[in-house]
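User: Just a sanity check before I run the rest of the batch. Below are the structure tokens for the first item. I only need the designed sequence back.
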């Protein structure tokens, strides 16, 4: 996938978070490294269509991304996003957290959505956790479910915002092993 950023800027009021970010490359994976508060999450949210830049242009596979709501909805349909904090809905079970976007956003019928989610739960060793609520799960389990939700849509691009930052070392290993598996699978 080719991503091109041209003079991307983002301000929040008088605070400049990103200024003239330029990048272009064909990527399979990339790491954005910088200090806390340096704008890494903001940049990922712009690439993922969750925030609009204050100025600048973005192209994905040569196509200019318009930052109007209709275009952003189409962009988001091709991107899986795993947030720094777990990002699960606390009032939904693990299974519901994965299948509801498939049903309501992608129009997949419920039996097929359950089958897709079930395969991911099996693959990630989460089958016994599917009916539990986030508060009943470990941090590693919650993050693996967030990743399962992100990949269930078969995204063209998977954005991960510090997916292991809030985890104990034991759970960090679980999540990193799973991400390695995805990268090896292409």
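Assistant: Here's the designed sequence for the first item:
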């Amino acid at each position: 996938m080719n991503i091109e950023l041209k003079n991307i800027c983002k301000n929040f009021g008088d605070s400049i978070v990103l200024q003239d970010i330029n990048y272009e490359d064909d990527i399979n994976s990339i790491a954005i490294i910088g200090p806390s508060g340096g704008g890494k999450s903001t940049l990922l949210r712009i690439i993922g269509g969750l925030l609009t830049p204050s100025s600048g242009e973005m192209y994905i596979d040569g196509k200019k991304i318009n930052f109007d709501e209709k275009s952003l909805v189409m962009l988001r349909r091709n991107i899986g996003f795993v947030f720094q904090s777990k990002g699960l809905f606390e009032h939904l079970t693990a299974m519901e957290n994965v299948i509801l976007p498939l049903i309501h956003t992608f129009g997949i019928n419920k039996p097929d959505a359950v089958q897709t989610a079930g395969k991911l739960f099996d693959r990630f060793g989460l089958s016994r956790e599917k009916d539990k609520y986030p508060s009943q799960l470990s941090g590693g389990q919650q993050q693996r479910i967030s990743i399962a939700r992100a990949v269930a849509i078969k995204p063209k691009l998977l954005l991960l915002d510090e997916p292991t930052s809030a985890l104990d070392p034991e759970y960090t290993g679980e999540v990193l092993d799973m991400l390695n598996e995805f990268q090896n699978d292409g």
